[in-house]
TrEMBL record:
Residues 33-194 form the N-acetyltransferase domain. Coiled coil: none annotated. It is found in: Cytoplasm. Keywords: Acyltransferase, Biological rhythms, Cytoplasm, Melatonin biosynthesis, Phosphoprotein, Transferase. Gene3D superfamilies: 3.40.630.30. SUPFAM superfamilies: Acyl-CoA N-acyltransferases (Nat). It comes from Acanthochromis polyacanthus. InterPro entries: Acyl_CoA_acyltransferase, GNAT_dom, SNAT-like. Pathway: Aromatic compound metabolism; melatonin biosynthesis; melatonin from serotonin: step 1/2. One of its GO terms (biological process) is circadian rhythm. GO terms for cellular component: cytoplasm. This is Serotonin N-acetyltransferase. It catalyses: a 2-arylethylamine + acetyl-CoA = an N-acetyl-2-arylethylamine + CoA + H(+). Transmembrane segments: none annotated.
């Protein structure tokens, strides 16, 4: 698996901490806003947000709890969580895929030699919706992917009503997805990463 050390400048607090004299600095203070890769300890919080966001709309979760743990064990570097004072408020989970289009196997497999980043899920806690956090987190995630030389593009599948949302983030429609879940059908979308060589050279150092 390729190293992601060069991408670390994007995984840092979103707002700088205020300058405080060492003599009066409080101990154990959590950053007001932080973006970092997820780990298995975040799995329950991830699943709770995901379940509330998706069950009420479609009746299905993109990832069940064991699958969340599965991907956060295999490839945590392809996840991203937004935390407010230590509380998870939004997240993305992805894994690598090695084919041009998504198939059912892409829902559960991570292909370390793949060059396509499959975004399994983006979700925002209900308290923090309608604040622009979803698009902001997606933007940061795509910036992060540009720093990974093995990733050439990102793909996702979504219900039709979400297509305009992802278009605003720069995704383009590939067509109908071959995957169906229960009675749900999906549109497959992609975002080219490999075309951003300038960004790679100038922002990933």
């Amino acid at each position: 698996m390729m190293s992601v050390v060069g991408a670390q400048p994007f995984i840092k607090p979103m707002q700088p901490s205020p300058s405080v004299s060492p003599g009066i600095q409080r101990r154990h203070t959590l950053p007001a806003s932080e973006v970092r890769p997820l780990n298995t300890q975040d799995a329950i919080s991830v699943f709770e947000i995901e379940r509330e966001a998706f069950i009420s709309v479609s009746g299905e979760c993109p990832l069940h709890l064991d699958e969340v743990r599965h991907f956060l064990t295999l490839c945590p570097e392809y996840s991203m969580g937004w935390f407010e004072e230590g509380r998870l408020v939004a997240f993305i989970i992805g894994s690598l895929w090695d084919q041009d289009r998504l198939t059912t196997e892409a829902l559960t497999l991570h292909k370390p030699r793949g060059s396509t980043l499959h975004i399994h899920v983006l979700a925002v806690h209900r308290t923090f919706r309608q604040q622009g956090k979803g698009p902001i987190l997606m933007w940061r995630y795509l910036q992060y992917l540009r720093c990974l030389p093995n990733v050439r593009r990102a793909v996702l599948m979504c219900e039709d009503f979400l297509v305009p949302f992802y278009r605003k983030s720069g995704f383009k429609v590939l067509g109908r997805c071959a995957i169906t879940v229960a009675n749900l059908t999906f549109t497959e979308m992609f975002y080219p990463i490999s075309g951003h060589a300038y960004m790679r050279r100038n922002s990933c150092v």
